[in-house]
Fold this protein.
Amino acid sequence: MTIQKSNHRIIQLIIVLFGISFLTFLLVYLSPGDPAEIMLTECGHIPTPELLAQARHDLGLDRPFLTQYGSWLKGVVTGDMGMSYSFKMPVFQKLIQCLLPTLALALLSLGIMLVVSLPLGFLSAVFHNKWLDYAIRSFSFIGISVPSFWIGLVLLRIFGVNLGWVSVSGGSADLRSIILPAVTLALAMSAKYTRQVRITVLEELNKEYVTGARMRGIPERKILLQHVMPNVLLPLVTILGLSFGSLLGGTAVVEIIYNWPGLGNMAVRAIACRDFPLIQGYVLMISLFYMLINILVDLSYPLIDPRLKRDKKMKIKPREVKKDESYVIEKE
């Protein structure tokens, strides 16, 4: 059964990726602008009709749509995503080069967010309708209302311009430069996750197993850490997985503010330059990451809550009744 489910997931993954690649290629093909003209202009050449025709022929843009898509898909299957028009390097190499800074930024921002939101959410639920709860809820409300780009500009002004602790120009992916972008993303997410943790903890505290544990004299701290915490983490894993996927593909605004050399910054430049191969490779990579993250989230459920695995093993199959089986009621 497990092998069949794995095969089903692989087939579903291939079908979804094929559909995404086709739609992305179609939208890029129908988008306005001539990448050959943009490439010639950036190289300092005057885009004459002869040069444009030669550039379009070299890039394969003069071929029919299905021929272009088939050639690109064949290259992707064999590991060749083509050459980037704007960066003058293989698409796959450029994606890997920008993936590592974005991956580091996403992991650090998620770590900071968990350190902030989990304690605040628990404290807000434990001290329900008290001054601490009101203060934390006010913080989360303000954090949700304020956009992340504004937080980034304020932090950059304070720590970059006034204090001079970080470089305003950015462009590097060292440890000193990653702190402010990570804090900017973490603050925006912490407000949302604090409210989510608070709601989940309140639901768990009102359940019967918590009341029974308190009646048996179990300390409140032990109840929170050993009983409530695992039940709180389970529904948050799905949201964390989706947030991690969105951070890999949706940090363009923050990356542009801090000039962080990640996927978001690269994607904006690729769109501005009509860099079709790089745009298609970027969308395909982010889609693949989203689906892999969802699969990993599903696989992590039994590890977080062993009861799910135990219930699956103890599932009783319905009793099969044979056709020739009869029941006779004897009369007294």
About this structure: Residues 72 and 181 are 35 Å apart (CA to CA). The radius of gyration is 27 Å. Confidence is low (pLDDT under 50) at residues 314-332.
